[in-house]
Design brief:
The chain is α+β, with helices and mostly antiparallel strands and 439 residues long.
């Protein structure tokens, strides 16, 4: 009996130790699940059942038990009954994880939006286009390339190909359509960069100025410029890892103000010589943008009224943290057609229907390779400067999000290509096929 008790005690100690050791991981597991469920249900208008069996159907997130309160617009996820996280929906700001009960009833500001233009045809409005047939396009070749992504392996949800302002191919997986909002993940970083471009063109900011951060003024970090941050080349410490507890996961699932974590990191490299991909840097930049506005309402409005709604991305929802700052690293939702308008804005060098939102110089800036990035990164955009995609022009550049969310800009071909899905794919083969459709 004594031996049995000792064995039982040992087992209990082991179980307790395992729970204590993994408790922080449970926090992140439940947090990811709750946030994703709330956004999917209340922003993208999908069901809990669908989200659980698709977006959240990977280990260990699929171990969480999820529920939704449709009346109060929140989602709850439990990790083995040991830890529960809640995410709430806020009109105009999307979903956010709560950290305490009072977060559920806290007041918040709602961004002001411009009215959609439903009379002007795409791309400048939301009305249907007139059918245009290009004699120099092999439509069968385009369709073959697009269909390639819709097999059971690639898990593609949406593909859109735009040539000379005309949609020449558009396809959706079952359950998705042209009105479906799709999460851009890190493509949000490219939106963030564009806000800086708009402000730079308006004369409200100079990206080559020193970053206006008070806490850096008494150490070497005072020399970091906004440009260094946009290029992910600040030299600041950051751990961007989603398979374990890291700076990135703690920021996204535990922080009230996501603009602060990168600010508090030490310098571990030399600015302009230490490229390191960091979602913390993007959110720090979102916080820097806030300092250029007199009020928080102006900060919230500007992204839409001076950029997003101005080009007719009216479906877009930028999600904010509990402090009301846009999560510039990760959280933006829009239809595939609206994401294509973003690519077209760059294809047109910032000129949208006669109005110059940013300059050709800004396009040159964001497509200039960051020092020490091996030609792969510009200013919150990804590049093909070193021909990583060997069958694609070197001047192609793109917004890039987790699991293969993409907006490709191909200046030589006058094309924008959009892809959304749940899995990375053979980008070179796909892009090569579409490019070769131009005779």
């Amino acid at each position: 009996m004594k031996i049995f008790k000792r064995i039982l005690l040992l087992v209990l100690i082991l179980v307790l130790s395992t729970v204590i050791y993994n408790y922080p991981k449970l926090n992140l597991l439940a947090g990811y699940s709750a946030k994703n469920i709330a956004s999917s249900v209340f922003v993208a208008e999908r069901t809990l059942e669908y989200t659980d069996t698709t977006d959240n159907d990977f280990s260990p997130v699929n171990l969480a038990s999820d529920s939704v309160d449709l009346e109060n617009k929140n989602a709850t996820s439990s990790a083995f009954g040991l830890l529960t996280r809640k995410a709430i929906y806020r009109e105009g700001l999307g979903a956010v994880l709560t950290l305490k009960e009072s977060d559920e009833t806290a007041d918040y500001l709602i961004p002001k939006r411009l009215k959609p233009d439903n009379n002007t045809p795409y791309p400048y409005g939301n009305a249907p286009q007139k059918d245009t047939i290009f004699a120099n396009l092999d439509y069968d070749k385009i369709d073959e390339s697009v269909d390639f992504l819709f097999d059971s392996i690639n898990k593609t949800r949406a593909v859109l190909v735009v040539y000379k302002d005309q949609i020449v191919s558009e396809k959706y997986a079952e359950g998705f359509h042209k009105e479906s909002k799709l999460l851009g993940w890190s493509m949000t970083k490219s939106l963030l960069s564009t806000v800086f471009g708009v402000m730079q063109t308006q004369g409200g900011i100079n990206v080559f100025d020193k970053a206006p951060i008070d806490s850096w003024q008494k150490d070497e970090r005072k020399n970091i410029t906004i440009n260094n941050l946009l290029q992910m080349n600040s030299g600041l410490e950051w751990d961007e890892n989603y398979s374990r507890i890291s700076d990135a996961t703690k920021m996204l699932f535990l922080d009230r103000d996501m603009t602060k974590m990168q600010e508090n990191k030490p310098l571990v490299g030399t600015p302009n010589e230490s490229w390191n991909y960091s979602s913390g840097t993007s959110n720090l930049l979102s916080g820097i943008l806030r300092t250029y506005f007199k009020t928080h309402q102006e900060y919230l409005d500007f992204w839409y009224t001076n950029f997003i709604d101005k080009i007719g991305m009216n479906s877009m929802v930028l999600e904010a943290d509990l402090s009301g700052n846009y999560v510039g690293s990760s959280y933006s939702w829009a239809t595939a057609r609206d994401w294509s308008k973003f690519g077209l804005l760059y294809l047109k060098n910032g000129n949208w229907n006669g109005e110059q939102l940013f300059t050709k110089e800004w396009v040159n800036y964001i497509t200039t390779p960051t020092p020490t990035s091996n030609g792969t990164y510009g200013a919150q955009f990804w590049l093909n400067a070193e021909n990583d995609f060997k069958d694609v022009p070197k001047n192609m550049y793109y917004a890039d999000g987790f699991q293969g969310q993409r907006v490709y800009v191909l200046p030589d071909q006058e094309m924008v290509i959009v892809r959304f899905g749940l899995k990375n794919f053979d980008e070179n083969t796909f892009l090569k096929g579409v490019i070769e459709s131009i005779k």
